[in-house]
Design goal:
Elements (H helix, E strand, L loop, with lengths): L21 E5 L5 H4 L4 E3 L3 E5 L7 E5 L5 E7 L5 E7 L8 H17 L8 E6 L8 E6 L2 E6 L2 H4 L2 H12 L3 E5 L5 H5 L6 E5 L6 E5 L2 E5 L14 H8 L6 E5 L5 H9 L4 E6 L2 H13 L5 E5 L2 H10 L4 E6 L11 H18 E11 L6 H15 L3 E7 L18 E7 L1
Helix pairs in contact: 2-4, 6-7, 9-10, 10-11
Bound molecules: S-adenosyl-L-homocysteine.
S-adenosyl-L-homocysteine (SAH) binds next to helix 7 and helix 9.
Length: 415
């Protein structure tokens, strides 16, 4: 399947007015989620369309018998046919509206104390900030933007204007959306600098008194895993004097926090990617953590070889990539989580600390706890859940769209 290019001509007649060009009527009995403020109208819920909206146009959502429900943006190419942004008929989705939403999102981060110019924070978390399809991360003076909805792509200039007015960044970089996602939306958006300039090397940002180099142009996600910020600190509180294994370490966030803030005896950090291992090495050096060793190796193989060699650790962090991409693969994912957690528990000395994470949205917190219960049963070790955490507060979850909740981080003691 080829991905159609993003239209470049101003296609949406409603772009500036923010007023609807069409009305999308739902099928009977399909309105309830939207009265409940859920922002995704799937193609299967759509009855008939009055008017002929262009992709990106403002449309009104109505019940099958014509009552206003909400206002959103149309995309004929996506299974999410309409993304909703306002639930009253008086709100126009014009430039002022997008400015307002962005200003509110930025103000929330200020309220959270995440406005240190030398720090990094997620400024916009898609549905969590009532801006479905938009992610904005700030790394020092630079912004990294990810667009996962075509309708947002057509408003990118407005969004960049608002970000520039509010923050005067040195540069705004566009990072491609996650594999597959862009295709689902009919979006073709290669990485590029949208405003200002790109940094010439890594950006250095502060996190809980530590310093991390972030590769904005080529790093994973938008360069760094901001969602784990507070979990790294929480994990580090258990590290004192322990031998720590940081599995799936990426740029070494947990490893450095455990070594420097936590006072670990030593840390072994492992990632399959050579690039990630190099970033972790550099970040350990940057923080003067001489007791961090980094290895580029497959985690499954490494866990098995450590077990075969009879190695023991006082603390193990497991932060794997998303194992479940959809509900259909949840069972396979749970088996994979079981497997690595089972081996990790075997590697832990009695009283050791397990920090185990899932960033698979379709694996619920409950599923994950059940998986740990299975590991306790199979290993004959008692697992005490000390904390079951989520993403940091700059990744808010919209209560009307719980699909946005994806991260589970359990800190447990293994007897
Ligand atoms: N803990 C990190 C984020 C980890 S993201 C932090 O706090 O920043 C998941 C990482 O797993 C990625 O860096 C990816 O390169 C790595 N990875 C994916 N598959 C792997 C495998 N089979 N073995 C080891 N690492 C793997």
């Amino acid at each position: 399947m080829t991905t159609p290019a993003l239209p470049t001509a101003p296609l949406a007649s409603s772009l500036s007015s923010g007023l609807p060009t069409a009305t999308v009527a739902l099928k009977p009995k399909r309105a309830r989620p939207f009265f409940g403020r859920h922002p995704w109208v799937l193609d299967s819920a759509v009855g008939k369309v009055e008017g002929s909206p262009a992709d990106g146009d403002v449309v009104d959502l109505a019940t099958h018998d014509g009552h206003f429900v909400a206002r959103g943006l149309w995309n004929s190419r996506s299974r999410i046919r309409v993304r909703l942004y306002a639930f009253d008929a008086a709100t126009k989705l014009d430039d002022a509206f997008w400015h307002g939403r962005l200003t509110a999102a930025i103000a929330l981060r200020r309220h959270l104390g995440l406005d240190d110019p030398a720090g990094a924070a997620r400024l916009v978390n898609s549905e969590g900030d009532d801006l479905s399809g938009l992610i904005v991360d700030r790394y020092g003076d630079y912004l990294a933007v990810q667009v996962t909805a075509l309708a947002i792509a057509t408003r990118l200039e407005t969004i960049c204007d608002a970000l520039t007015t509010a923050l005067a960044p040195k540069g705004i970089l566009l990072r491609g959306a996650e594999r597959g996602l862009a295709k689902l939306e009919g979006l073709a958006m290669p990485d590029r600098v949208i405003r200002g300039t790109a940094p010439t090397g890594p950006i250095f940002v502060q996190e809980h008194g530590l310093k991390f180099g972030v590769d904005l142009a080529e790093g994973q996600k938008t360069g760094y895993y901001l969602d784990q910020r507070d979990n790294r600190q929480a994990a580090a509180r258990h590290a004192r004097g322990r031998r720590v294994l940081d599995m799936f370490c990426y740029s070494g966030g947990f490893a450095v926090a455990c070594a420097v803030s936590g006072g670990a005896r030593s840390v072994l950090a492992v990632d399959a990617s050579d690039k990630a291992a190099a970033l972790a090495r550099a970040n350990a050096d940057l923080n003067g953590a001489a007791n961090v060793a980094v290895e580029a190796m497959d985690a499954f193989e490494k866990l098995d070889s450590l077990a075969a060699a009879g190695e023991r650790f006082g603390m193990i962090v497991l932060d794997p990539p998303k194992f479940a991409r959809s509900r259909a693969t949840v069972d396979d994912a749970l088996r994979a989580y079981h497997r690595i957690n089972r081996v990790a528990v075997g590697l832990l000395e009695p009283g050791g600390i397990l920090v185990t994470c899932s960033c698979s949205g379709s694996v619920t917190r409950d599923d994950f706890h059940q998986m740990l219960s299975g590991v306790a049963q199979r290993s004959g070790r008692s697992i005490q859940i000390l904390e079951s955490r989520g993403a940091a507060a700059d990744h808010p979850v919209n209560a009307s769209c719980l699909e946005g909740e994806y991260l589970t981080c359990v800190i447990a003691r293994v007897a």
